[in-house]
Amino acid sequence: MIKHLKRITLILLLLTSFKGFSCDCSTVNNALEFYSSKYVFEGKIVSKVYAADSLTYKVTFDISKHYKNGDTPKTLSFDLKSEAEFSKRWSSCDWTAKKNERWIVYAYENNGQLTFSGMCSNSRAITNLPIQFQEQKMLDNGNSFKIEDYIYQFENDFNYCKNITDINAVLEKGKIKVYIKPFTSLILHIGSDGNLKSVNITKELMSLYDSIYGLRKELTYTNYIPITDFEKDAIELISQVKKWEIKKHNQTKVNVAYLKSIWVNYDTKTNKWSYEL
Protein backbone atom coordinates (compact mmCIF):
# COMPACT_ATOMS: atom_id res chain seq x y z
CA MET A 1 0.00 0.00 0.00
CA ILE A 2 2.79 2.41 0.95
CA LYS A 3 4.69 1.66 -2.27
CA HIS A 4 1.50 2.30 -4.24
CA LEU A 5 1.00 5.71 -2.57
CA LYS A 6 4.62 6.65 -3.21
CA ARG A 7 4.21 5.77 -6.88
CA ILE A 8 1.08 7.94 -7.18
CA THR A 9 2.83 10.84 -5.44
CA LEU A 10 5.80 10.58 -7.80
CA ILE A 11 3.54 10.59 -10.85
CA LEU A 12 1.68 13.68 -9.60
CA LEU A 13 4.95 15.51 -8.95
CA LEU A 14 6.20 14.70 -12.43
CA LEU A 15 2.96 15.86 -14.03
CA THR A 16 2.88 19.14 -12.14
CA SER A 17 6.56 19.91 -12.72
CA PHE A 18 6.83 18.96 -16.41
CA LYS A 19 7.43 22.36 -17.96
CA GLY A 20 4.32 23.54 -16.21
CA PHE A 21 3.55 26.96 -14.87
CA SER A 22 0.53 28.24 -13.00
CA CYS A 23 -1.35 31.31 -14.13
CA ASP A 24 -2.01 33.98 -11.53
CA CYS A 25 -3.23 37.41 -12.49
CA SER A 26 -5.65 39.94 -11.08
CA THR A 27 -8.69 41.34 -12.88
CA VAL A 28 -7.74 44.13 -15.26
CA ASN A 29 -10.01 47.17 -15.24
CA ASN A 30 -11.11 47.57 -18.87
CA ALA A 31 -11.00 51.39 -18.78
CA LEU A 32 -7.36 51.31 -17.70
CA GLU A 33 -6.55 48.69 -20.31
CA PHE A 34 -8.30 50.84 -22.94
CA TYR A 35 -6.21 53.81 -21.79
CA SER A 36 -2.94 51.85 -22.10
CA SER A 37 -3.79 50.24 -25.45
CA LYS A 38 -2.76 51.49 -28.87
CA TYR A 39 -5.80 49.96 -30.56
CA VAL A 40 -9.09 48.65 -29.19
CA PHE A 41 -11.29 46.97 -31.78
CA GLU A 42 -13.77 44.28 -32.71
CA GLY A 43 -12.76 42.01 -35.52
CA LYS A 44 -12.84 38.56 -37.09
CA ILE A 45 -9.77 36.37 -37.53
CA VAL A 46 -9.58 35.73 -41.28
CA SER A 47 -6.18 34.05 -41.32
CA LYS A 48 -4.04 31.92 -38.99
CA VAL A 49 -0.66 30.76 -40.28
CA TYR A 50 1.96 28.86 -38.25
CA ALA A 51 5.68 29.52 -38.64
CA ALA A 52 7.89 26.81 -40.12
CA ASP A 53 8.95 25.64 -36.63
CA SER A 54 5.32 25.85 -35.36
CA LEU A 55 6.45 27.80 -32.29
CA THR A 56 4.60 30.95 -33.34
CA TYR A 57 1.66 31.81 -35.55
CA LYS A 58 0.32 34.92 -37.22
CA VAL A 59 -3.34 35.89 -37.01
CA THR A 60 -4.91 38.57 -39.17
CA PHE A 61 -8.05 40.42 -38.12
CA ASP A 62 -10.61 41.94 -40.44
CA ILE A 63 -11.67 44.86 -38.23
CA SER A 64 -15.35 45.74 -38.10
CA LYS A 65 -15.22 48.46 -35.44
CA HIS A 66 -12.46 50.60 -33.93
CA TYR A 67 -13.02 52.13 -30.49
CA LYS A 68 -9.72 54.01 -30.29
CA ASN A 69 -7.65 56.04 -32.76
CA GLY A 70 -10.22 56.46 -35.52
CA ASP A 71 -11.48 54.00 -38.13
CA THR A 72 -8.19 52.65 -39.51
CA PRO A 73 -6.48 50.34 -40.20
CA LYS A 74 -9.03 47.89 -41.60
CA THR A 75 -6.79 44.87 -40.88
CA LEU A 76 -4.17 44.12 -38.24
CA SER A 77 -1.87 41.12 -37.87
CA PHE A 78 -0.23 39.75 -34.73
CA ASP A 79 2.55 37.22 -34.17
CA LEU A 80 1.65 35.05 -31.19
CA LYS A 81 3.22 32.13 -29.31
CA SER A 82 1.82 28.77 -30.30
CA GLU A 83 -0.29 26.53 -28.12
CA ALA A 84 1.27 24.10 -25.65
CA GLU A 85 0.85 21.15 -28.03
CA PHE A 86 3.49 22.81 -30.20
CA SER A 87 5.66 24.58 -27.62
CA LYS A 88 5.51 21.72 -25.07
CA ARG A 89 5.32 24.35 -22.33
CA TRP A 90 2.17 23.38 -20.49
CA SER A 91 0.55 26.11 -18.46
CA SER A 92 -2.82 27.18 -17.10
CA CYS A 93 -2.11 30.45 -18.93
CA ASP A 94 -2.23 28.69 -22.30
CA TRP A 95 -4.70 30.24 -24.76
CA THR A 96 -5.27 30.36 -28.48
CA ALA A 97 -6.90 32.46 -31.17
CA LYS A 98 -8.75 30.54 -33.87
CA LYS A 99 -9.65 31.35 -37.45
CA ASN A 100 -13.21 32.68 -37.93
CA GLU A 101 -13.52 33.72 -34.28
CA ARG A 102 -14.78 37.23 -33.50
CA TRP A 103 -12.74 39.05 -30.87
CA ILE A 104 -12.67 42.22 -28.83
CA VAL A 105 -8.97 43.13 -28.76
CA TYR A 106 -7.05 45.52 -26.51
CA ALA A 107 -3.78 45.73 -28.45
CA TYR A 108 -0.62 47.23 -26.96
CA GLU A 109 3.03 47.61 -27.86
CA ASN A 110 5.64 45.38 -26.23
CA ASN A 111 9.28 46.10 -27.12
CA GLY A 112 8.10 47.97 -30.19
CA GLN A 113 5.89 45.13 -31.41
CA LEU A 114 2.10 45.28 -31.48
CA THR A 115 0.49 42.37 -29.61
CA PHE A 116 -2.38 41.30 -27.38
CA SER A 117 -3.11 38.54 -24.89
CA GLY A 118 -6.03 36.23 -24.31
CA MET A 119 -5.05 35.85 -20.63
CA CYS A 120 -4.85 38.48 -17.87
CA SER A 121 -6.57 40.87 -20.28
CA ASN A 122 -10.00 41.91 -21.48
CA SER A 123 -9.10 40.70 -24.99
CA ARG A 124 -11.18 37.61 -25.73
CA ALA A 125 -13.26 35.76 -28.29
CA ILE A 126 -16.84 37.05 -28.47
CA THR A 127 -18.14 34.64 -31.10
CA ASN A 128 -20.54 32.97 -28.68
CA LEU A 129 -20.58 35.52 -25.85
CA PRO A 130 -21.27 39.11 -26.90
CA ILE A 131 -19.86 42.16 -25.14
CA GLN A 132 -21.83 42.90 -21.99
CA PHE A 133 -23.66 46.18 -21.46
CA GLN A 134 -21.24 47.63 -18.89
CA GLU A 135 -18.16 47.03 -21.01
CA GLN A 136 -19.92 48.33 -24.12
CA LYS A 137 -20.72 51.54 -22.25
CA MET A 138 -17.05 51.92 -21.34
CA LEU A 139 -15.93 51.22 -24.93
CA ASP A 140 -18.30 53.86 -26.27
CA ASN A 141 -16.90 56.42 -23.80
CA GLY A 142 -13.29 55.24 -23.61
CA ASN A 143 -11.82 58.19 -25.48
CA SER A 144 -13.24 60.58 -22.87
CA PHE A 145 -11.55 58.79 -19.96
CA LYS A 146 -9.16 60.90 -17.87
CA ILE A 147 -6.93 58.79 -15.66
CA GLU A 148 -6.18 61.65 -13.25
CA ASP A 149 -9.86 61.97 -12.25
CA TYR A 150 -9.82 58.81 -10.09
CA ILE A 151 -8.35 57.44 -6.87
CA TYR A 152 -6.33 54.23 -7.12
CA GLN A 153 -5.21 51.50 -4.74
CA PHE A 154 -4.51 48.03 -6.13
CA GLU A 155 -4.90 48.61 -9.88
CA ASN A 156 -2.19 47.49 -12.32
CA ASP A 157 0.15 49.69 -14.38
CA PHE A 158 1.23 52.03 -11.57
CA ASN A 159 4.44 52.26 -9.54
CA TYR A 160 4.49 51.03 -5.94
CA CYS A 161 4.76 54.01 -3.59
CA LYS A 162 6.55 54.29 -0.26
CA ASN A 163 6.65 56.92 2.44
CA ILE A 164 9.15 59.79 2.23
CA THR A 165 8.52 61.04 5.76
CA ASP A 166 10.19 58.66 8.24
CA ILE A 167 7.34 56.75 9.92
CA ASN A 168 9.57 55.29 12.63
CA ALA A 169 10.69 58.78 13.64
CA VAL A 170 7.05 59.83 13.89
CA LEU A 171 6.07 56.78 15.96
CA GLU A 172 8.87 57.48 18.45
CA LYS A 173 6.77 60.46 19.54
CA GLY A 174 3.80 58.21 20.33
CA LYS A 175 2.14 58.32 23.72
CA ILE A 176 2.90 55.73 26.39
CA LYS A 177 -0.47 54.60 27.72
CA VAL A 178 -2.45 51.55 28.71
CA TYR A 179 -4.47 50.82 25.61
CA ILE A 180 -7.27 48.34 25.07
CA LYS A 181 -6.84 46.58 21.70
CA PRO A 182 -3.66 48.49 20.76
CA PHE A 183 -3.76 47.82 17.03
CA THR A 184 -5.70 49.21 14.10
CA SER A 185 -5.87 49.41 10.31
CA LEU A 186 -5.80 52.88 8.80
CA ILE A 187 -6.43 54.08 5.28
CA LEU A 188 -4.43 57.01 3.91
CA HIS A 189 -5.64 59.24 1.08
CA ILE A 190 -2.62 60.66 -0.75
CA GLY A 191 -2.93 63.34 -3.39
CA SER A 192 -1.43 63.30 -6.87
CA ASP A 193 1.34 65.57 -5.53
CA GLY A 194 2.38 63.00 -2.93
CA ASN A 195 1.00 64.98 -0.01
CA LEU A 196 -1.15 63.25 2.62
CA LYS A 197 -4.77 64.41 2.43
CA SER A 198 -6.48 62.39 5.17
CA VAL A 199 -6.16 59.45 7.58
CA ASN A 200 -9.14 57.37 8.66
CA ILE A 201 -10.04 54.06 10.21
CA THR A 202 -10.30 51.56 7.35
CA LYS A 203 -13.72 50.27 8.41
CA GLU A 204 -15.15 53.80 8.10
CA LEU A 205 -14.16 54.21 4.44
CA MET A 206 -16.81 54.10 1.73
CA SER A 207 -15.90 54.52 -1.93
CA LEU A 208 -18.11 55.90 -4.68
CA TYR A 209 -17.38 54.36 -8.08
CA ASP A 210 -17.89 55.86 -11.53
CA SER A 211 -20.79 54.16 -13.32
CA ILE A 212 -19.01 54.06 -16.70
CA TYR A 213 -15.38 53.25 -15.90
CA GLY A 214 -15.79 51.30 -12.66
CA LEU A 215 -13.10 53.26 -10.83
CA ARG A 216 -13.13 55.00 -7.45
CA LYS A 217 -14.33 58.56 -8.01
CA GLU A 218 -14.92 59.86 -4.48
CA LEU A 219 -14.38 58.89 -0.86
CA THR A 220 -16.85 59.20 1.97
CA TYR A 221 -16.43 58.26 5.62
CA THR A 222 -19.21 56.94 7.84
CA ASN A 223 -17.88 58.53 11.05
CA TYR A 224 -20.57 56.73 13.05
CA ILE A 225 -18.41 53.91 14.41
CA PRO A 226 -16.98 54.86 17.83
CA ILE A 227 -13.19 54.83 17.78
CA THR A 228 -10.95 53.95 20.70
CA ASP A 229 -8.32 56.11 22.40
CA PHE A 230 -5.68 54.06 20.62
CA GLU A 231 -7.25 54.68 17.22
CA LYS A 232 -7.43 58.42 17.93
CA ASP A 233 -3.76 58.52 18.90
CA ALA A 234 -2.77 56.36 15.92
CA ILE A 235 -4.58 58.72 13.54
CA GLU A 236 -2.89 61.71 15.16
CA LEU A 237 0.53 60.11 14.72
CA ILE A 238 0.11 58.88 11.13
CA SER A 239 -1.30 62.28 10.14
CA GLN A 240 2.25 63.55 10.64
CA VAL A 241 3.52 61.31 7.81
CA LYS A 242 2.98 64.09 5.31
CA LYS A 243 5.11 63.15 2.31
CA TRP A 244 4.78 60.07 0.09
CA GLU A 245 6.14 59.05 -3.27
CA ILE A 246 4.08 60.25 -6.20
CA LYS A 247 2.01 57.59 -7.94
CA LYS A 248 2.33 57.61 -11.73
CA HIS A 249 0.87 55.61 -14.56
CA ASN A 250 3.78 53.54 -15.89
CA GLN A 251 3.19 54.32 -19.55
CA THR A 252 2.01 57.94 -19.60
CA LYS A 253 3.64 59.12 -16.32
CA VAL A 254 0.46 60.96 -15.34
CA ASN A 255 0.26 61.62 -11.58
CA VAL A 256 -2.76 60.22 -9.73
CA ALA A 257 -4.21 60.22 -6.22
CA TYR A 258 -4.19 56.95 -4.31
CA LEU A 259 -5.01 55.07 -1.12
CA LYS A 260 -2.51 53.38 1.15
CA SER A 261 -3.27 50.93 3.97
CA ILE A 262 -1.17 50.84 7.13
CA TRP A 263 -1.38 48.68 10.25
CA VAL A 264 -0.38 50.43 13.47
CA ASN A 265 0.44 48.51 16.64
CA TYR A 266 1.50 49.32 20.21
CA ASP A 267 3.46 46.78 22.25
CA THR A 268 2.28 47.08 25.87
CA LYS A 269 5.38 45.24 27.13
CA THR A 270 8.01 47.43 25.47
CA ASN A 271 5.85 50.58 25.11
CA LYS A 272 6.92 50.78 21.47
CA TRP A 273 4.79 51.80 18.48
CA SER A 274 5.26 49.95 15.19
CA TYR A 275 3.67 49.78 11.74
CA GLU A 276 3.34 47.61 8.68
CA LEU A 277 2.50 48.78 5.16
Mean pLDDT: 90
Strand count, sense and barrel status of the largest sheet are: 6 strands, antiparallel
**How much helicity do the residues have?**
10-25%
- Indicate the proportion of strand residues: 25-35%
Number of domains: 2
Number of helices: 6
Report how far apart the termini are.
Answer: 49 Å
Global Rg: 25 Å
Shape: elongated
Helix vs. strand class: alpha+beta
Give unreliable regions as ranges.
1-21
Q: What is the chain-wise order of helices and strands?
A: HHEEEHEEEHEHEEEEHEEE
What order do the helices and strands come in, and which of them pair?
Elements: H1 2-17, H2 30-36, E1 39-50, E2 56-66, E3 75-81, H3 84-87, E4 102-110, E5 113-115, E6 124-125, H4 133-141, E7 151-152, H5 167-171, E8 183-190, E9 196-201, E10 205-209, E11 216-221, H6 229-238, E12 247-248, E13 255-267, E14 272-276
Parallel strand pairs: 7-13
Antiparallel strand pairs: 1-2, 1-4, 2-3, 4-5, 4-6, 8-9, 8-13, 10-11, 12-13, 13-14
Protein name: Tissue inhibitor of metalloproteinase
Keywords: Signal
InterPro entries: TIMP-like_OB-fold
What would you note in describing this structure?
It comes from Flavobacterium degerlachei. This is Tissue inhibitor of metalloproteinase. InterPro entries: TIMP-like_OB-fold (IPR008993). The structure is a single chain. The protein has helices at residues 2-17, 30-36, 84-87, 133-141, 167-171, 229-238; strands spanning 39-50, 56-66, 75-81, 102-110, 113-115, 124-125, 151-152, 183-190, 196-201, 205-209, 216-221, 247-248, 255-267, 272-276. With 277 residues, it is an alpha+beta fold. The chain has two domains: 23-145, OB fold (Dihydrolipoamide Acetyltransferase, E2P) (Beta Barrel); 149-276, no CATH class. The strands form three sheets. Strands 1, 2, 3, 4, 5 and 6 form a six-stranded antiparallel sheet that branches. Strands 7, 8, 9, 12, 13 and 14 form a six-stranded mixed sheet that branches. A two-stranded antiparallel ribbon has the order 10-11. The longest helix is centred in the first third of the chain and has 16 residues, at 2-17. The protein is elongated and about 70 Å long. The two termini are 49 Å apart.
